[in-house]
Amino acid sequence: xxxxxxxxxxxxxxxxxxxxxxxxxxxxxxxxxxxxxxxxxxxxxxxxxxxxxxxxxxxxxxxxxxxxxxxxxxxxxxxxxxxxxxxxxxxxxxxxxxxxxxxxxxxxxxxxxxxxxxxxxxxxxxxxxxxxxxxxxxxxxxxxxxxxxxxxxxxxxxxxxxxxxxxxxxxxxxxxxxxxxxxxxxxxxxxxxxxxxxxxxxxxxxxxxxxxxxxxxxxxxxxxxxxxxxxxxxxxxxxxxxxxxxxxxxxxxxxxxxxxxxxxxxxxxxxxxxxxxxxxxxxxxxxxxxxxxxxxxxxxxxxxxxxxxxxxxxxxxxxxxxxxxxxxxxxxxxxxxxxxxxxxxxxxxxxxxxxxxxxxxxxxxxxxxxxxxxxxxxxxxxxxxxxxxxxxxxxxxxxxxxxxxxxxx
Length: 409
Fold this sequence. Notes:
The chain is mostly helical. It folds into 2 domains: 56-352, Rhopdopsin 7-helix transmembrane proteins; 362-406, no CATH class. It has 11 helices and 4 strands, in the order H-E-E-H-H-H-H-E-E-H-H-H-H-H-H. Strands 1-2 form a two-stranded antiparallel ribbon. The longest helix has 40 residues, at 268-307. Residues 4-29, 39-50 and 362-409 have low confidence and may be disordered.
């Protein structure tokens, strides 16, 4: 799927001749008068392409929106990776999958979004032939890996809660599933590496531009049946099937955790265990809902343009697509925010990271206060015969001061 495939920016739409058509509709942007102009006058046949150079203030607005999204997504996902890998108590099966998800989200924000946005904003691809292929390959690869990882998490939660006596996944099995996710995503993304290419177009005004587009064996991007079938298959595999699967698993888990009642008395440990599972499931349900909302307009856009190609001639289609593309790509920045908001361990991990970077005001004093609170609780938990054991207190202070994630959720 061509993630930057804004219909009117494809090479063919800039060079198509309308001399054989009785009626045609042309849209271009008049920079002198700051307005879009539509015409069917044959005398204006030299203006057969749509100028996608936005006014400077709108370019600045979109640049700020995309730059903010890229920074938040990249930093947030890298911090999530650091939190899990740097703290042994965080290395659970679910968190390993979250690391896999964060790797995919960080890849799409750093290796794809900035380049595609630049291409969509200026209708020119200055990054070379290889990166045209690689950029689109990375886009589909990372998005596929993200959604398959979400599916893996939902299935793992389903098995853990619905069949608690069944052995849990080990580290090797988890890494094997992650490797299979990336391998499958590479296969799905491979057509982009094969068929994407670059070309230099000569425009009617004498200027040139470089385009990055898919050159399918059976025709151009707007007429290829192979591309249409690929886009539909991609949409089914990476959106509808995962959404259906995750809706089913989390619905069953929700009924189990919130709808059923235990027979007899429950210990406090059992109640805490149920509450912990509920928190994780609620967090993942929010992640899945956000994913569904962010990606739905993107998939709908390509379905609509496949059946109604003239939609791409709409005067404001560039900004409509920029908004749809921003919403889809912004999904990569929401997950770290959700983890920080709904999981106390991740929240403490983010605080620890910003303390280490010196990015929080009064971070040192707050950190000492955090450690002191832990020390006070440790003191209260000691028996009278051990309150004078300075070595015990010193160990408690050291482990808490350097690793806030060691405390319970």
